[in-house]
Amino acid sequence: MEWKIFWTAFATLFLAELGDKTQLAVFAMTAKTKAIASVFLGASLALVIVTLIGVLAGGLISQYVPAEWLQRVAAVIFISVGVLMLFGKI
Prior knowledge:
There is one protein chain. By secondary structure, the protein is mostly helical. 82% of the residues lie in helices and 0% in strands. The chain has helices at 3-17, 21-33, 36-61, 67-86. Helix 2 runs antiparallel to helix 3 (36-61). The radius of gyration is 16 Å and the shape is globular.
C-alpha cells in the first residue's frame, strides 16, 4: 500500500465532501427519518461504489490519455460546473 497516496486521497475527498450537497442531503434525510444506521450505511455504500467507478474509469482512461490531460479536463469540468452553479443553471 502506498500510504502517501492513501492519505492524500483521504484528505482530498474528506475536505471536498465537507458541506457539499451530498452531506447536506444525508443530514436532511437523517433528520427526517431518524434512521441513522440505514442512512449511514446507504450513503457509505453509494460513496464507495461511486469511488470504485472513478478508480476503474481513471485506471482505464489513464492507459490511453496522459495524466496531465486528465487533470486539465477534470479542472475544466470542475470550473464549468462551478460557473453554471454560480449563474443558477444547475
